[in-house]
Amino acid sequence: MRIPFTKMHGAGNDFVVIDERSGAFGLTPAQFAWIADRRRGIGCDQVILLQADRQAEVFVRFVNSDGSEAGACGNGSRCVAALVSAETGRGEVSMRTLGGRLTASMLGPYSARVDLGEPRLDWRDIPLSEPADTLHVELGGQEAVACSMGNPHATLFVDDLDAVDVAGLGARLEWHPMFPQGANIGFAQRLSDTALRLLVWERGAGLTLACGSGACATLVNAHRRGLVGRRAEIEMPGGVLEVEWTQAGRVLLTGPVASAFTGSLALGDLPA
Fold this sequence. Notes:
By secondary structure, this protein is an alpha+beta fold. The chain folds into 2 domains: 2-116 and 257-269, Diaminopimelate Epimerase, Chain A, domain 1, CATH 3.10.310; 137-249, Diaminopimelate Epimerase, Chain A, domain 1 (Roll). 16% of the residues lie in helices and 42% in strands. The protein has helices spanning 29-36, 74-88, 166-173, 212-224, and strands spanning 2-10, 13-19, 46-51, 58-64, 69-70, 92-97, 100-108, 111-115, 137-139, 142-148, 152-157, 184-192, 195-202, 206-207, 231-236, 239-245, 251-256, 258-266. The chain has an 18-stranded mixed β-sheet that branches. The radius of gyration is 18 Å and the shape is globular.
């Protein structure tokens, strides 16, 4: 049996998309990790599974490069929207994820916007392991702002991003005891009233060229701190994402989408 796939990315945040709407392939965490491996497999930050759904056009699962599962992915959702929109010819796509129901819109052949819903700001909803002011979360000598965008996020605001050991500190804080489910750790530098520079250590994936839900969490947390307005450009190594926290409380993520190539995997070639 062969497994067709599409390799896609949003601002360099790359995905292997596998269509299971006609039936699941039964892949294991070890097999997902092999697919994501950049030397032995195809290589990606996350594997995306498309599954049939009665409440939306598609149910979407996001599997990290270590084989664990994520609840939401902003850039991945935009890539799914591009694929489904190309199939249906409709400019708007509804999808369900473990993090909730999402709606995405195509703004052109290579640009998409996804509505990631309302951020969750209470410590119980992120979740944190104990009551805390989510604007000031103490993480072993580091102060972060926490929220959930379908996944737990912690943002550390710094004066000089180049002076921070993002990989070392991100790996140390990803599973800090304050986060019973782990967290995506963002390091953000304010550039202006309408721009932030961001690096994200993603839970289960490590450093990525871009993180859509991380960009959204950063805009929300920066606005809560009074650093920016309700709309800003988020500069990441893979490109620029635009995030708006609307007056209605919804968080909108806009950015590029691209298909790199298609192919197929032989199921028998995957590790057991």
